[in-house]
C-alpha cells in the first residue's frame, strides 16, 4: 500500500493514520491518533517489499527493543509494534514536536558554547544510560538528536533512531552486527566503524559526540569532502581541520576534550560518556548551560516533528572519481616514481584484455567513456590497496548481475556501471539496482550490499503495438491475391498432366516400333 493510501486508514483498530511526516528507502513515518485514549503518536512503517528480508526486519524491531530496554526520559519511547494486513511491520512511538539539531544547525550554522553544551549534556546522559545496558547507538548525528518544544520551559533533548544499534552483552542479537558490516553516516563514523570492524564498542559513540560538538561550534564536521569515499579516506588517514580556520572566535577551552574524543585510537578517547560529560561541565558551569537552553527555547522552530532516519541511501559509485584523484595525488607525494605507474600499467592491461572485448561492435562509442570511468574507479581501489594496509580500508563487496545481455545497461543507485561484476562499498542500507535494454521492460530490484552476491535478471520484452491501417490494407489485398492465384493453380497442373500424357504416348509408340 502506498503512503498516500495509508492516510485516513486505521491500523489494528487502534491507530488512525492522519499525516505523512517523513519518507525514505526503508519506510515511512506518519502522525496518527490512538483512538481509544486520544493520544497523538508517530507510526513508522517498514516497506512491504522489505518484509521478507529477515535481517532488515530484525534491525527494524531492534529499535523498539533497544529503546524499551534503556527506559530513559531523554530517549524516544517506543509504545507498540505490529504488522499490517499488507505485511508491513510498524513501530508506534511517542509524538515529538519541536526541531531536530540538524535543522537548527542548518539555520544558525554554529552555536554559542553554552547552548552547545546545554544540548549535549542531556544527550550524553541518555547515551551513558544506553551504554549501561550494553547498547551502542552507532548512528549518532544531528538528525538523531531531537529538541522537543516545551511551553514555558527549556526544550527537552531526545536521542532517536536506535535502528542499527549494537547489543554488546553477548546475546544472540550481537551476531546481527558481528560480521564487519559498515553501518552509519560517513562524517560521524569512527575510524574503526569506517573500516567495518566487528569489534566496534561504545567508544564509537564517544567519537560521534566529539564530531557533533565540533560541528555545533564550527559550522561543519571535522572531515568534509565532495563524496562518500573522500570523507571516509580523511576519517581513516587525516587530521581534523583546525577550528580557528573555520571560526575566528572558536572557544579554545573546548578544543582539548573534542580532540581527545576524536582520537583515531579508541584507547586514547574518553572511556565513557560520563567522562566526556564531566570534562565538558568543567568548561561551562551549570548556570551557563541552563541559560543556553533557555535561549534555545526562545529561538527554536516548534512546528517540526521527529521521524528519525528512515533509510536514505548514499551512493558509493559516482563519488569514486574524486577519491581516486585524491589518493593518486597522495601517493605521488609519498613515492613520485613507482606506485602510480605500476597501477596505471596494471589498469592498462585490464582495460585492453577485459573491457575492450565487452565494448566492441555497436558498443564501441560506449567503450571510450565506460573504459575511462572504470579505469578511474579501479585506479582508486588499486592505489588504496598499495598505499594503505588492509586494516585501514573500508570493506567492499562484489555484485554480479546474471542474465543481462551485453547490450544491457546496469545502474546502481542511478549511477551507470560500466563493468559486471562490480564492487561497491559494504553496508546495510537498501540500494536500488536496475537493468535497461531497448525493447524490454526495465528490470528493478533493491539490494543490500552487506556481502558478495549474485543478482539474477529476467528481462521481459515490451508488447508490440498493433497498427490499425496496415492491417486493413493487408486484409483488403489478401482476398484479391487468393482469388487471382486460384485459377493458375488449377490450370497449371492440368497442362502439366496433358504434357505428361502426350509424352507417355510418344514413348510408348517408339517402343512398339522397335518391337516390330
Biggest β-sheet: count, sense, barrel? 6 strands, antiparallel
- The CATH architecture of the largest domain comes to Orthogonal Bundle
The assigned structural class equals alpha+beta
- In terms of DSSP E residues, the strand content is 15-25%
Separation of the first and last Cα atoms: 101 Å
- Main CATH class of the largest domain: Mainly Alpha
The stretches of 5 or more residues where confidence is low (pLDDT under 50) are 169-182, 311-368, 376-393, 473-478, 480-487, 494-500
- Number of domains in the coordinates? 4
Tally of helical segments: 15
- CATH H-level superfamily of the largest domain: Transferase(Phosphotransferase) domain 1
Radius of gyration from the CA trace?
34 Å
Q: Mean pLDDT, as a whole number?
A: 74
Assembly state: single chain
What's the arrangement of secondary structure elements?
Elements: H1 3-6, E1 10-11, E2 15-23, E3 27-34, E4 40-46, H2 54-70, E5 78-83, E6 89-94, E7 97-100, H3 101-108, H4 113-132, E8 135-136, E9 145-148, E10 156-159, E11 166-167, H5 191-194, H6 203-218, H7 228-237, H8 243-246, H9 255-261, H10 273-281, H11 286-299, E12 304-305, H12 320-334, H13 339-358, H14 364-387, E13 396-402, E14 409-412, E15 415-417, E16 422-425, E17 431-436, E18 443-447, E19 453-456, H15 468-515
Parallel strand pairs: 13-19
Antiparallel strand pairs: 1-2, 2-3, 3-4, 4-6, 5-6, 7-9, 7-12, 8-11, 9-10, 13-16, 14-15, 14-17, 17-18
Helix pairs in contact: 4-6, 4-10, 4-11, 6-9, 7-12, 12-14, 13-14
